[in-house]
């Protein structure tokens, strides 16, 4: 990887982490308050999500005007538009995990700098789940059907 790509990745990661910290996304209690729509709902994170959707929409509009990215040979955009069991199961698992812990992968990784044991435990469990998936994915029927 070239030095400009590494520098861009570093700056992007720092900006992402700073944005998560500034917005309160590193605080599991605040996230759980946002998800608790039937109780003491905290709508403030809706603005964070709206901002993320807006930035993404601008990026896709910019992408449409570019032949290729500045620091890569081509755009890496998902092309699969099929809604299947793997997608729904993964989304459900992500949602349940987010609702139980108040963390998702990005904020959890950024939150490691806080030194909180619950965030470290979440990241360890997440990495363990990724390892288990990597070791067993070829044995799952849904994986074989999706690839085949």
From TrEMBL:
The protein's matches in Pfam families, at most eight in alphabetical order, are given as: DUF6691
Give the source's domain of life in one word. Bacteria
Q: Which InterPro entries match?
A: DUF6691
From the record, give the transmembrane residue ranges: 45-62, 83-103, 109-135
Q: Which UniProt keywords apply?
A: Membrane, Transmembrane, Transmembrane helix
The protein depicted here goes by the name Sulphur transport domain-containing protein
Q: Which organism is it from?
A: Methylobacterium symbioticum
Query: What are the leading ranks of the lineage?
Result: Bacteria, Pseudomonadati, Pseudomonadota, Alphaproteobacteria, Hyphomicrobiales
């Amino acid at each position: 990887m070239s030095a400009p790509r590494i520098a861009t990745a570093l700056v992007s990661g720092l900006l992402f982490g700073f944005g998560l910290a500034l917005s309160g996304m590193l605080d599991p209690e605040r996230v759980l308050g946002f998800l608790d729509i039937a109780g003491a709902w905290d709508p403030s994170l809706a603005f964070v999500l709206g901002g993320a959707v807006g930035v993404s929409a601008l990026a896709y509009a910019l992408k449409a005007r570019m032949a290729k990215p500045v620091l890569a040979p081509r755009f890496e955009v998902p092309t699969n538009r099929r809604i299947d069991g793997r997608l729904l199961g993964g989304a459900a698992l992500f949602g349940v995990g987010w609702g139980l812990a108040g963390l998702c992968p990005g904020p959890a990784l950024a939150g490691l700098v806080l030194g909180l044991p619950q965030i470290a435990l979440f990241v360890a469990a997440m990495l363990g789940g990724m390892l288990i998936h990597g070791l067993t994915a070829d044995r799952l029927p849904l994986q074989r059907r999706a690839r085949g």
